[in-house]
Amino acid sequence: MKAVNPKITSFFTSKGNLGVKRPCEDEDSDSENSKNNQPQVPICNDVISTDISLFVNRRLSDEEKLLVLKNVWKPQKNYDFPLLELNKGRSLKFQYAWLDKYSWLAYSKALNGAFCKYCVVFAGNTGGVGNQPLGNLVISPFQQYKNAHRTLGIHQAREYHIASVTDSEHFIRIKENNQPTIVEKIDSNRRAKIIENRKRLIPIIECVLLCGREEIPLRGHSDYGRIIVDDDHDGSREGNFRAILKYRAKGDQFLKNILEGPVNSAKCFSILADETTDISTKEQLSLTVRYIDDDAILHEDFLQFYVIESLTGSDLASSILNALSSCGIDCDFLYGQGYDGASNMSGKYNGVQTVIRQKYPKALYLHCAAHSLNLAVSTSCNIKSIRNCLGVVEKLYVFFNTPKRQNVLISEIEKSDTEFRVKTLKRLCVTRWVEKYDSLNDFYELFPVVVKALDTICSEWSDTTDASILKKCILDSEFLIALSVTKLLFSFGLPLCK
Q: Start and end of every DUF4371 domain (predicted)?
């Protein structure tokens, strides 16, 4: 790991020690504190090496944690606590008795305020109501002494404080008895297994990186099943990634043993679900399971359509689990979830994936990669001229989507000296943004004959209002530039999506 520049460390340490204004942790008790949340500048220059302020808002080593919990600086009983400017109106000073009553409280001589030493070590930066950033007693010093017992009592009852106290007691017990931590025990007992697993993964990851650097697509016609290294029969149909992996294994006996070794038998599956509406406008869930059989063959099998009455996350989750149970599938082996990005499906609080993970924690949620790309492109296309361009192309499709107008367009295509690849306009895909490329590309190719077809309609038909408006729109320079730019950009996204 690259060494950290000491100047950077000292800069951020001093920033953290002096404090930056942050939200108060106790909304109901610190309304006055919030006005003066930023600590006052220290009045002492001789900062004690065990002052609590030196350990605030930092990643601490085990030695530093133990120092804070056991040997942090504590003033003498006759210590003269300063009268801070914000408390002069009531002549309130910090009271030594508070340190005796609240064993977790530590006073900072450098910042003239108090911190909770347990929370400084284990609470982190967030944990308040709604996981808000912590402030008073954790990141910034406690200096507002009006209603001090009420403020300190509220902090003492906070969940993150209680958890920090438990963690501190456990940490001290381990360190004082020279016991290895849980992580150290796991590393010690499984170190050989970890090293072996890493050796298994490294050549596979390197093959993936090679394909990425050289822009080689990974998947092939049958990108699953057992890999026999010396069997080159019809290898091209397996895909580039598997072919490269087999080629590398011919000179790597360890990798060859892994690829041709026994297949792990794991009864795990993933659920793929999406909402759809049938012809009678009934909402239904389409359910599909994805799994690998004992021969390492990948399967993706449709189960059923399941009628749903509600589209809330909890109701949809119940419908999915009930549908799986009705098919005789044991959800204890549910290890994956695949849905779209709608909030009722992907929401991290009340979405389907969250509700299911509360019951089956191993069921990880993965958002469709192609859908994510489409959402990114959709979000980025907020430029007015681009939106207008796509709208005009869609209106032209609708305009020519009648037999009479379609005949005019076909007639102009047949009269043209150019050989066109397409003979009709294509509708813009509503959900897959990058697939709009085909529609734009077809319109771009047919542009000259579209203009002539509109000219014909304007000159020969009685009702020509729509044709005149559309013709004016597509001959506008802003439209032409937007069409060319959008077509080019979508051409980059289409192969990536596929």
A: 267-351
The angle formed by the CA atoms of residues 94, 100 and 102, to the nearest 5 degrees, is 85
Q: In what order do the strands lie in the sheet with 298-307?
A: 298-307, 283-292, 269-277, 334-339, 364-367
Cα gap 234→398, rounded to integer Å? 47
pTM reported for the whole predicted model: 0.44
Q: Which residues pair with 367 in a beta bridge?
A: 339
- Determine phi and psi for 460, rounding to 5 degrees: -115, -20
C-alpha to C-alpha distance for 455 and 409, rounded to whole angstroms: 11
Q: Count of H helices and E strands in the chain? A: 19, 7
Amino acid at 478: E
**How far apart are alpha carbons 341 and 367 in whole angstroms?**
7
Q: What share of the chain is helix, strand, coil (3-state, %, to 5)?
A: 50, 10, 35
Q: Which residue blocks in 250-341 are alpha helix, DSSP H?
A: 253-260, 313-326
Say how far apart CA 102 and CA 193 lie, in whole Å.
Answer: 46
Q: How far is CA 300 from the centre of its chain?
A: 26
- The C-alpha atoms of residue 375 and residue 373 are separated, in whole angstroms, by 5
**SS3 for 278?**
coil
Residue 142 is given by DSSP the state B
Measured between alpha carbons, how far is 488 from 388 in angstroms, rounded to an integer? 17
pLDDT in tens, the chain (498 residues): 444 444 434 444 444 443 333 333 443 444 344 444 444 444 444 568 899 999 998 889 888 999 999 999 999 999 999 999 988 888 999 999 999 999 999 999 999 999 999 999 988 776 655 567 788 899 899 999 988 999 999 999 888 899 899 888 888 888 877 766 666 666 666 677 778 888 888 888 999 999 888 888 887 666 777 788 877 665 456 778 888 888 888 888 888 888 887 777 778 899 999 888 878 778 888 999 998 887 778 888 999 898 888 888 889 999 999 999 888 899 999 999 988 877 788 888 888 999 999 999 999 988 877 677 777 777 767 788 988 998 999 999 999 999 999 999 999 999 888 888 888 898 887 666 767 888 899 999 999 999 999 999 999 888 888 999 999 999 999 999 999 998 888 888 777 776
* Contact residues for 211 (Cβ-Cβ < 8 A; gap 6+): 217, 218, 240, 241, 244
CA distance 272 to 360: 16
Q: How many residues belong to the chain?
A: 498
292 DSSP β-pair partners: 298
Would you say 303 and 350 are in contact if contact means Cβ atoms under 8 Å apart? no
